[in-house]
């Protein structure tokens, strides 16, 4: 069984920064991709950023230049450093580990006030 747990959400003013963490545990296939998604009220869940086991990353256009995804394979942990936050970044942020199957965390709320 794979468990994925996010942490680091909170309330921040526009222009501020937050760092999200996601730790995976259990029977994890090493060649996995980890990603961050977000879902605002009334909207679909969208991919924010993803990173392969080898470190290749990709970003949604809306966060390029502001967010940075990174991972520590030894700790099965992925991070999302968010800077220059905007009110439109407000959402529940979910971590997902994909290795054949996909495993989701419970989500962490990020609220950016104007």
What is the topological layout?
Blueprint: E1 2-7, E2 10-13, E3 18-26, E4 33-39, E5 46-51, E6 57-59, E7 67-72, E8 77-82, E9 91-99, E10 101-104, E11 108-113
Parallel strand pairs: 2-11
Antiparallel strand pairs: 1-3, 3-8, 4-5, 4-9, 5-6, 7-8, 9-10, 9-11
Instruction: Tell me the major beta sheet.
Output: 7 strands, mixed
How much helix is in the residues? under 10%
Structural class: mainly beta
The dominant shape is globular
Give the tally of β-strands.
Answer: 11
Flag low-confidence runs.
none
Strand content: over 45%
Distance between the termini: 41 Å
Give me the strand/helix succession: EEEEEEEEEEE
Q: What is the overall number of helices?
A: 0
Report Rg.
13 Å
- The average pLDDT value, as a whole number, equals 95
Description of the molecule:
- By secondary structure, the chain is mainly beta.
- Helix content is 0%, strand content 58%.
- It contains no helices and eleven strands.
- The chain has strands spanning 2-7, 10-13, 18-26, 33-39, 46-51, 57-59, 67-72, 77-82, 91-99, 101-104, 108-113.
- Strands 2, 4, 5, 6, 9, 10 and 11 form a seven-stranded mixed β-sheet that branches.
- Strand 5 (46-51) and strand 6 (57-59) form a beta hairpin.
- The radius of gyration is 13 Å and the shape is globular.
- The N and C termini lie far apart (41 Å).
